[in-house]
Structure formats: C-alpha cells, structure tokens
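Pinned message: reference record for Lipoyl synthase
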Amino acid sequence: MTAAPPTEKLRHPEKAHRPDNPVQRKPAWIRVKAPVSQEYHETRELMRGLKLNTVCEEAACPNIGECWKHRHATFMILGSVCTRGCAFCNVGTGRPDLLDPHEPEKVAEAVGQLKLTHVVITSVDRDDLDDGGAEHFARTIGAIRSSAPGTTIEILTPDFMRKPGAIETVAKARPDVFNHNLETVPRLYPTIRPGARYFTSLHLLATVKEIDPSLFTKSGIMVGLGETKEEVAQVMDDLRAADVDFLTIGQYLQPTPKHVAVDRFVTPEEFEGYARLARAKGFLMVSASPLTRSSYHAGSDFARLREAREAKLAAAAVA
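Predicted structure (tokens):
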C-alpha cells in the first residue's frame, strides 16, 4: 500500500473555508509579461543563496519581472509568515518563523552584491514579538549604513500596534524614508484589514514626523476595493494632516480565489485624476497608476522627492 503524499501546508489557513471568489481577467492596461530575463534569475538565486525573503515574490507583485531585471528587489525581513490575515494580501499567514539573528548582515550583503543605490526594506507583521520587530528593523538599517554608506534606505513597516517605543526605535535609526501603508479607506478596514486600525496607522505616521521632522514619510492605498472617490479624498486629507510627504495609489489585484474580489478595475484616467487631486492637496510626491506599488521605482522617486523638498524650501525662503 502506497503512502499518501504529504499534505502541502496551507499558505492562508484563515481563508481556507471561505467561498471562492473567481479571479477576474485583467484589463489590457494591467497585463504584464512573465519574468524571463537573466538578471531576474540571478537576483532570484542570490536571494535563495542568502536565505532572504522578498515581498516581490511573497506578495506576488506584478512588477517583479521589470524590477528584478534592474536588480531592484524589496527585502522582507522578520521571516516569511505574517501574524495578521488581511483579505487582500498574498503573504503567508500562521505561526511565525524564528528570527534569523544574522538577517540584517545578510540583507546588507545582498545590497552590496546588487549594487543598490536605494533599498526598500519591509516585513511581515510580528504581533508575537514584544517590540513588533522594531529592533530588527533598526539593526538592518545599521548594517546597511555600515557596509553601504552611500545607499539610501526606505522602510515599509507594520503598524506596531500596542508596541510601546517601537516607532521611536525605528525612527531613531534614521531611515531616509519611513513608509507605512493605510491600504484602504476606513470604512473598509473591518473586511479588508481586520487586524489593523485606521487611526493607529495615521498615528504612526504623525509620530514619525514628531520624532524627526527631517524624515520623509510615505503611505499608500489600493483602489478597486469598493471605495468611493470622496473616501479617497478624505484619506488624502488625513495623510496631509499627519504631514505625510509621499502618496502612492495602485490597483488592487486579487492573488487567489480565497482573497477578496476586485470590485472594479480603475481606469488610467481615474488614476491621473487622483494624482492631480493629491498634488493639489500638497503632497511633495504622488505616484498613482494601475501598477503602482509602494516600492515601484522607489529609487528614482526618492531622488524626485528630495528635489521637491529642496524646491519647496527655496520657494519659502524667497517668499
């Protein structure tokens, strides 16, 4: 009698019993080519060799082929298993991994091998850790500063809910950009981001500016989840009240039938309208398009962000 094959570990156990939502065919303006470049495969092998995770793979980012062709990988620290179960996210959930104490140095080594001038570091949520992983973020920033002092560092953190001192720990490590995504409008949090709280996320962004006003702050949302234009405009106002510098807006894409369905595909023209509105509300930088993601073109966007701040300061000095 042959033994039954081992059961594959469920990537999203909390979604296993949900009814399927058929994945809709994407419109022409969203389709991307499969990754085939030599640089893509070399980047993949580097990550495997150093046992590092990337949000590019874990979140099934549609831009992975383009970004990895240019060796622009976004590192995901603190393991590959998230303690939250957001309805939109493809990152695996469940019992979290043990922390790799050498991960900060491995990330720094990969930054050097990829010759990155700007690096983005994100993570899973680690509600199981006393500080939510804040010290690990700080150590990773420090390791990159030591080995690649010319590289600018952008971080995309969890909300550090109920983790006193965590925001301060990361902000004092002085990343160049401190990003935390609101993801959607407050009305949709109970179904889309049930483990999070909208005003906790806003508070994080405002606190970073209070700790160090010189740090650039950034946040992003997805559209196509059922939000209204008025709700998006209110999120913009809330972010500006928190003095956030950079806003990203992209189309939600459903990773699997177990994830929340796409409500609609927002047209490129609507994205242009959102970008105009955000600029009018005072953001230094706005990136709004169907394929916009937090780390998409982050290096060139950071250069433009610095130029925008310098221009604003110069104009204020003349006035």
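Pinned by admin. Summary line: Residues 183 and 283 are 17 Å apart (CA to CA).
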